[in-house]
From TrEMBL:
It comes from Desulfosporosinus lacus DSM 15449. Signal peptide: none annotated. PANTHER family: N-ACETYLGLUCOSAMINYL-PHOSPHATIDYLINOSITOL DE-N-ACETYLASE (PTHR12993:SF11), N-ACETYLGLUCOSAMINYL-PHOSPHATIDYLINOSITOL DE-N-ACETYLASE-RELATED (PTHR12993). GO terms for molecular function: hydrolase activity, acting on carbon-nitrogen (but not peptide) bonds, in linear amides. It holds the Pfam family PIG-L. InterPro entries: GlcNAc_PI_deacetylase-related, LmbE-like_dom_sf. This is N-acetylglucosaminyl deacetylase, LmbE family.
Length: 243
């Protein structure tokens, strides 16, 4: 049976910008990857591509095309409003995530860290909702939500160019993505409404851009991971763990 990776993020494009190379790498290795997205990013900018009221649908379509590029097997939208994830009913969103975790039973869950990478309130909120769901998913309660499941490994994607050298020395997983850089670029381009973000990135220092398309960084949550670890393979030494 193929190993499972579950990604939990806030908006369409988070997956491509934050860890597109890692996704493409593991998908090519036969890992089944599911992406959960809290919103459709309907409060963002349309870059002249569509009317504001059409943005959610357009961004959903962009994400599905990017997912095809990267090799994501399934995309699940939770249905919350962009920029309002912290205001979502806590038990409702946690229940949805518990159901997904118990159904998919992934070896690894990847989401944002507590700082949300960019500090976005939706990013930070999805971090805490994900942690709550992982804790609840293993408990012998709410059997109608699925069979309890203990997660082997939880990791947080980190923005390498935002980190100091001292912090980088403490990063648990550094994934080489040079071989999959073109897929990452193609996936990012599929998010056409995010033109301004793409232009902002292109204006950055060449050293930053080279690193961005060479490595992706992840911190392991040692408290919530049954099998925490470090190295160059985020799925190393993992087997399914059922309660």
């Amino acid at each position: 049976m193929a190993k499972e990776m579950l990604l939990i993020f806030a908006h369409p494009d988070d997956e491509s910008f934050a860890l597109g190379g890692t996704i493409a790498k593991y998908a090519e290795q036969g890992i089944r990857i599911t992406l959960v997205v809290a919103t459709k990013g309907e409060a963002g900018k349309a870059a002249g591509i569509c009317k504001p009221e059409e943005l959610g649908l357009v961004r959903e379509q962009e994400l599905r095309r990017a997912a095809d590029v990267l090799g994501i097997s399934e995309v699940i939208f939770l249905g919350y409003k962009d920029k309002e994830v912290p205001l979502s009913p806590p038990l409702e969103i946690v229940e949805k995530l518990v159901r997904v975790i118990r159904k998919i039973r992934p070896q690894v869950v990847i989401t944002f860290g507590a700082d949300g990478a960019s500090g976005h309130r939706d990013h930070r909120a999805i971090h805490y909702f994900t942690k709550a769901a992982i804790r609840l998913a293993k408990e012998l309660i709410e059997p109608e939500w699925g069979t309890p499941y203990i997660l082997p490994r939880l990791c947080y994607v980190q923005s390498g160019w935002r980190l100091s050298e001292d912090v980088l020395q403490e990063i648990d997983y550094i994934i080489s993505i040079e071989q999959w850089a073109e897929k990452k670029k193609k996936a990012i381009i599929e998010h056409r409404t995010q033109l301004f973000s793409q232009q902002k990135f292109e204006a950055m220092d060449e050293r930053i851009k080279q690193n961005y398309y060479s490595r992706e960084y992840f911190q392991c949550d040692f408290e919530l991971s049954v099998f925490p670890g470090r190295g160059e393979d985020i799925l190393a030494d993992l087997e399914r763990v059922d309660s």
